[in-house]
Design goal:
The structure holds two protein chains of two kinds. The longest helix of chain A has 19 residues. By secondary structure, chain A is mainly alpha-helical. Chain B is of the alpha/beta class. Helix content of chain B is 41%, strand content 13%. Chain B has twelve helices and nine strands. Chain B has a five-stranded parallel β-sheet. In chain B, helix 3 packs across helix 4. Chain B is globular. Classes of the chains: A mainly alpha, B alpha/beta. At the A-B interface, helix 1 of A face helix 3 and helix 12 of B.
Chain lengths: 50, 307
């Protein structure tokens, strides 16, 4: 049996990051993570062409 | 809030079938590690480790474990977190679990980790509380299986304090169908409710530690003064003086009995040097297996069963 990160059999728990994306009580603090990741990307790499 | 998050807060959170699956995954994951076979199923996953008590093996095994599975770890200690003091545990559960994929907590009362988990959107693992130490017992039972095969129907002798290790052994006995002989000094007996037991069928209490050890397949103990009870140290040294696992005690156990200790050990107190450093001791395998069982546990909690 060969397992790779792309071919994992993944249960429902792994979708947890996407669950409940509309901010509730923790939404604002969670977005600290995401805006800071975008900020670091921009400061280090400049604009990314998508 | 996701409904199907699986936590490992106490041993009975996993069924017998799930535990058997975990032990098999542990075997496979350990084999990969020994063969330098790269296995990164948790790439891009972040483990947050929160420590409110000191740790050597737990931090090392979780941090090395998540890295070996392709993920990364963030270490928070009491200065950084202070669950329930800096901010409510429930709020910490919300915030920390939104920035990470899995959380391990070592703290004081079990109720702290239960409250955190109730507000977490990712799996939470008990890295030791005053009541339980389920990851250590996973490693201990896996170690027993490696050396002797199935633990079902076997007898484990617990000599010493009825602490978090003892409680967890008792829970494990109910799920995996083995027996525990417990011998504690007077005043330190098992509290079944605190241990979270369903009944009394899988353990027996002995006043005489030699009788508890007689015929046992595994003899195990822990320090006389667990973390958090240091103020009682002097009194405990006197109370536990007759509860040392020594060669005489191992001689009345089964001929092929193993000795285990979750470490750190105090030679000359709860165990003699002759026993812990002797042929029946498997304490180093036991310590190493923390790494492997916890890798299997994190894989299971995050990815479910691997086909």
């Amino acid at each position: 049996m060969k397992l790779s990160t792309q071919m994992q059999t993944i249960s429902a728990e792994t979708n947890i990051r996407a669950a409940n994306v509309k901010p509730r009580s923790g939404g604002r603090s969670q977005n600290r993570l995401h805006v800071q990741k975008a900020l670091m990307e921009y400061l280090l790499l400049g604009k990314i062409k998508s | 809030m996701a409904a199907s998050i699986k936590h490992f807060l106490q041993f009975k959170d996993l069924s017998r079938e799930e535990l058997e699956y975990l032990f098999e995954r542990t075997r496979i994951i350990k084999q990969k590690f020994k063969a330098y076979q790269q296995y990164w199923p948790l790439t891009d996953r972040t483990l947050v480790m929160i420590f409110e008590k000191a740790s050597t093996r737990t931090r090392l095994s979780f941090e090395a474990g998540i890295q070996q599975l392709g993920g990364s770890a963030i270490y928070l200690n009491t200065r950084d977190s202070q669950l329930g003091r800096g901010e409510p545990v429930e709020d910490a559960g919300q915030v920390i679990s939104r920035m990470s994929d899995i959380v391990m907590i070592r703290t004081f009362e079990q109720s702290i980790i239960e409250r955190f988990a109730a507000h977490s959107r990712v799996p939470v693992i008990n890295g030791l509380t005053n009541e339980y130490h389920p990851c250590q017992i996973l490693a201990d039972i896996y170690t027993y299986i490696e050396h002797r095969g199935s633990i079902q129907g076997k007898t484990v002798a617990w000599i010493g304090d009825s602490n978090n290790m003892c409680n967890t052994w008792l829970q494990a006995a109910e799920i995996l169908d083995f027996n525990v002989h417990v011998s504690t000094p007077p005043g330190y007996e098992v509290e079944p409710e605190r241990a979270g037991l369903y009944g009394h069928e899988h353990y027996e209490e002995f006043k005489d530690p030699m009788e508890a050890a007689r015929g046992a397949d595994l003899v195990t103990t822990d320090v006389w003064t667990s973390m958090g009870w240091e103020a009682e140290n002097e009194e405990r040294l006197k109370d536990f003086a007759d509860w040392q696992v020594d060669a005489e005690m191992m001689a009345v156990a089964a001929k092929d009995a193993l000795f285990m200790h979750c470490l750190p050990a105090h030679r000359g107190e709860e165990v003699s040097a002759e026993v812990i450093d002797g042929a029946q001791s498997v304490v180093w395998d036991e310590a190493e297996n923390r790494l492997h069982v916890q890798k299997a546990l994190m894989e299971y909690l995050l990815l479910g069963k691997i086909k």
